[in-house]
Specification:
It is a single chain. By secondary structure, this protein is α/β, with parallel strands linked by helices. The chain has two domains: about 5-100 and about 155-220, P-loop containing nucleotide triphosphate hydrolases (Rossmann fold, 3-Layer(aba) Sandwich), CATH 3.40.50; about 225-250, no CATH class. It is built from eight helices and nine strands. The chain has helices at about 25-30, 55-65, 110-120, 120-125, 140-155, 170-185, 225-235, 235-245; strands at about 5-10, 35, 40-45, 90-95, 100-105, 160-165, 190-195, 205-210, 215-220. The chain has a six-stranded mixed β-sheet, sandwiched between helices. A hairpin with a 2-residue loop joins β8 (about 205-210) and β9 (about 215-220). α7 (about 225-235) crosses α8. The longest helix has 16 residues, at about 170-185. The model has no long low-confidence stretch (mean pLDDT about 90). It binds adenosine-5'-triphosphate (ATP) and magnesium ion.
Length: about 250
């Protein structure tokens, strides 16, 4: 049995009709289904830009008690109130309590790093070990700092909500990320990840939910548009480029 700390999410009340959330496909579909289940250790939200992956992930994170801008449940910084109030309409089914947790918001990793710089100013200056490594995340490249955060800070028995963790990573490091996720899953962790990466979504046994106007569908990662389009492109880049550039067609 795989460990899940959040086993499902459901909409418990209608969102305000004046809010953009009301017309968001993912919210409409959630309101038509009993619940969205998380039965695997790793769940992915995939789908076209703007389908609501980040909105849903963030609302789950805030409903769970994370800081809306990312971090652990103890992070308390805020820069601007950018999060939606969808979390007020969500009910999460919780299983046991995790020992660890982290919400990585793609857009606010920089602010989370600044927050840690303030807290660990002395330690980082003197290269003393902290739960986040021994040097400022700002002194590392985007990809390095993300992996450093994961290696130093993610301790297992945890719930990790990640929004496009692939953004900073080379293909090699993306595979490192897969291996790191696997280690943490073996240590009873749960991941819910919004991603566009066909490499990441290949994690064995993961649940892949594709969000679209038509609904929230569970599918094999090979069926996703991300995987199929990437494969078509890599199998014959010239053909795809001709189609896009010479014939002026867009997918
Ligand atoms: N404050 C806001 N006011 C109005 N519309 C918003 C607001 N915030 C987000 N949206 C809209 O909600 C939709 C869903 O956004 P969201 O960021 O969740 O998409 P996404 O699936 O994460 O996309 P991407 O793959 O590009 O990250 C988008 O169409 C966006 O324009
Ligand atoms: Mg997003």
């Amino acid at each position: 049995m795989e460990r899940t700390y959040i086993s499902s999410v459901r909409l418990n009340s209608p969102v305000d009709e004046d809010s953009y959330l009301h017309n968001l496909a993912v919210v409409r579909h959630l309101s038509n289904m009993k619940e969205l289940r998380f039965s695997r250790a790793v769940t992915f939200f995939v789908g076209e830009n703007g389908t609501g992956k980040s909105t849903l992930l963030e609302a789950i994170a805030v409903a769970y008690g994370f800081n809306a801008e990312g971090g652990t449940r103890n992070f308390s910084f805020s820069t601007s109130a950018t999060h939606s109030d969808l979390y007020r309409h969500l009910t999460l089914s919780r299983n046991s309590y995790p020992k660890d947790g982290f919400f990585l918001r793609a857009e606010s990793f920089y602010n989370a790093a600044s927050y840690l710089d303030k807290i660990y100013e002395v330690e980082f200056r003197n290269h003393l070990q902290t739960g986040y490594g021994d040097r400022s995340l700002h002194e590392q490249s985007h990809g390095e700092s993300f992996l450093a955060l994961m290696v130093n800070r993610f301790g297992g028995n945890g719930i990790y909500l990640l929004d496009e963790p692939e953004a900073a990573l080379s293909p090699t490091r993306l595979m490192t990320l897969l291996a790191n996720i696997h280690e943490l899953v073996r240590e009873d962790s749960q991941f819910i990840i919004a991603t566009h990466s066909p490499i990441l979504m290949a994690y064995p046994g993961a649940e892949v939910y594709q969000l679209s106007e038509e609904g929230i569908r569970s599918m094999d990662y090979r069926q996703t548009e991300h995987f199929q389009l990437t494969r078509q492109f890599l199998e014959n880049p010239e053909k795809m480029l001709h189609y896009l550039l010479e014939e002026g067609k867009k997918p």
